[in-house]
Write a structure and sequence with these properties.
By secondary structure, the chain is mainly α. It has two domains: 10-95; 97-269, no CATH class. 84% of the residues lie in helices and 0% in strands. The chain has seven helices and no strands. The chain has helices at 3-6, 11-46, 50-95, 112-124, 126-162, 171-212, 220-268.
Length: 269
């Protein structure tokens, strides 16, 4: 079962994305073709004199041009919505770890070298191709986790600075929670870094095996280990995010409580 099914993605969501893509391409064509066809029919039926023919052609041209411009505007709107939909889908997929079956969703994130290697392996060796796709998926997962962990670390540091002036009895506990979060996120980031290095090394090994016509039997266990890490690390990062959000809400409550007496004193003055 692919990760798309695991995270509960249904057919309606995929149909929505397909419809947005079709609409982006179809809008200019339809809104240009329909006025042009109608103009042609009117011209054949009613253009009995030069003035009537000129009138039909003039208004037909204007309406066709307006339709074309409207089609371009609608195409831009649909393309923008499709881009947002694709981004949202990629984030949902990546949250559970990217698998080889979902690699097509992340084509834009592949390097030119990886794209070329995938094409070459399609013609050379199917088993090596599967291994390469799995490893590229692990590389993408590791890269995304590193970016997310850096972002989470920045948010955690902001929380720490925000709590610097907090003097409530829970302040120390919140600071300890922040330090724990930092350690956990740093651990995830370091593990993602190791996974990234391992994936890049594995990619080079597969490419070398393809050049010499070798198989992948000797590296099957390493590939399974890499795939397992690719599926567990995103979940660990999501858990860290949830924990951070919960503690952040509690911290905000404490800050608000501490601010209330100060406001009362200011109002009394």
């Amino acid at each position: 079962m692919s990760e798309l099914q695991k995270i509960g993605r249904d057919k309606r969501e995929l149909v929505r994305g397909r419809n947005l893509k079709v609409a982006a391409y179809a809008a200019p064509v339809i809104l240009t073709a329909l006025p042009a066809i109608v103009t042609g029919i009117l011209f054949v039926l009613f253009a009995t004199t030069p003035p009537s023919a000129a009138t039909i052609l003039f208004f037909g041209f204007v309406i066709t041009l307006v339709g074309f411009l409207k089609g371009l505007v609608l195409a831009g709107i649909f393309a923008y919505k499709h881009s947002n939909w694709s981004k949202e889908m990629r984030e949902r997929i990546a949250a559970g770890g990217i698998s080889a079956d979902e690699l097509d969703w992340f084509r834009n994130e592949l390097t030119s070298h990886e794209k070329k290697a995938l094409k070459d392996l399609e013609r050379a060796d199917v088993m090596l191709l599967d291994a390469y796709r799995e490893t590229v998926a692990s590389r993408l997962t590791a890269s995304r986790i590193m970016k997310s962990s850096r972002r989470e670390m920045q948010l955690t540091e902001r929380r720490r600075l925000k709590l610097k002036g907090l003097k409530s009895e829970n302040a120390q506990r919140f600071r300890e929670e922040i330090e724990k979060d930092k350690v956990k996120i740093a651990g995830i980031r370091d593990e993602a870094q190791d996974m990234l290095i391992e994936a890049e090394s594995r990619l080079q090994m597969i490419e070398a095996a393809a050049l010499r016509g070798g198989g992948m039997a000797d590296s099957e266990m390493a590939l399974k280990k890499l795939s397992a890490r690719a599926s567990t690390l995103p979940l660990a990062l999501e858990e860290a995010k949830v924990a951070r959000e919960i503690v952040a809400e509690l911290e905000q409550d404490e800050i608000d409580k501490e601010a209330l007496p100060e406001r009362g004193q200011l109002e009394g003055k």
